[in-house]
Each structure stands twice: as C-alpha cells, then as structure tokens.
C-alpha cells in the first residue's frame, strides 16, 4: 500500500499558477519584443 505523509506539501498548484503568469506576461510583451527586434535588427 502507498504510504501517506501528513507533512507533504504539493507545490504543483503554485508552479502551474507561476507558469501561467509567465506565459501571460510573455504573450502580452510579444508585440513589443518583435518591434524592438525589428527596430534594432535592421
């Protein structure tokens, strides 16, 4: 049988929220990033 640990903390919820925020910020910053690359890249 599986051992049940009372002190185990599941951090997957925090990780998924953090990754969601990273994706949200990067998607909203994508047009500005493309503009900077086009401006300085030629």
UniProtKB/TrEMBL annotation:
Q: Where are the transmembrane segments?
A: 12-37
Record keywords = Membrane, Transmembrane, Transmembrane helix
Give the domain of life.
Bacteria
Q: What is this protein called?
A: Uncharacterized protein
Q: Which organism is it from?
A: Vreelandella neptunia
